[in-house]
Design goal:
Length: 176
């Protein structure tokens, strides 16, 4: 109860600081830029680890129950577990879509929506969500969140430190 009251009354920047350790740990473990993950958390829950969406997504990275189960998150309100599960989900989406807009669309609207529309779904919420994360990332880093993709390749802008990719099957790593 005390933890809930403490988190509820903390200012936005103070709430963000509470989770830096978990975000740093799992971002490093899975080779993600910390500021990218922080931008996703900011958009998803405004750093409220007890957030619940009207569709049932929970915690910092707003995991749906089926994703929480898939990524071994037993308590979606536990910040460390939620961040780890959210980063695992992002990782899977990057391996499938290899395009930042498609990855964020899938994270927000689901993989089926991205597949159905063969791209960013025409949902206003999803389109605004992509813009919001890019805006948050720009504010946090001064860099634009961009990625170019080509068939079977992920090409990273060498001047943008937003994310690092691991070599996976036929994928090639550039700009590192």
């Amino acid at each position: 109860m005390i933890k809930f009251i403490l988190v509820f009354f903390l200012s936005f920047p103070a709430r963000a600081c509470l989770y830096e350790e978990a975000v740093n740990k799992y971002s490093e473990l899975y080779n993600y830029n910390v500021e990218f993950v922080m931008s996703v958390i900011q958009a998803e829950s405004a750093f409220d680890c007890f957030a619940v969406s009207n569709k049932g997504a929970k915690g910092l990275m707003q995991l749906m129950d089926f994703n929480a189960k898939k990524y071994d998150v037993s308590n979606a309100f536990n910040a460390k577990e939620n961040v780890k599960g959210g980063i695992k989900l992002l990782n899977e989406l990057f391996l499938k879509f290899a395009d930042i807009d498609l990855v964020l669309s899938a994270y927000n609207a689901g993989e089926n929506a991205v597949n159905k529309y063969n791209g960013v779904p025409p949902y206003r919420e999803t389109q605004q969500y992509i813009k919001k994360i890019k805006r948050f990332f720009l504010k946090r880093t001064g860099d634009e969140l961009t990625i170019l993709s080509a068939k079977n390749k992920v090409i990273e802008d060498p001047n943008s430190p937003w994310i690092r990719f691991r070599v996976v099957s036929s994928w090639q790593k550039f700009g590192l």
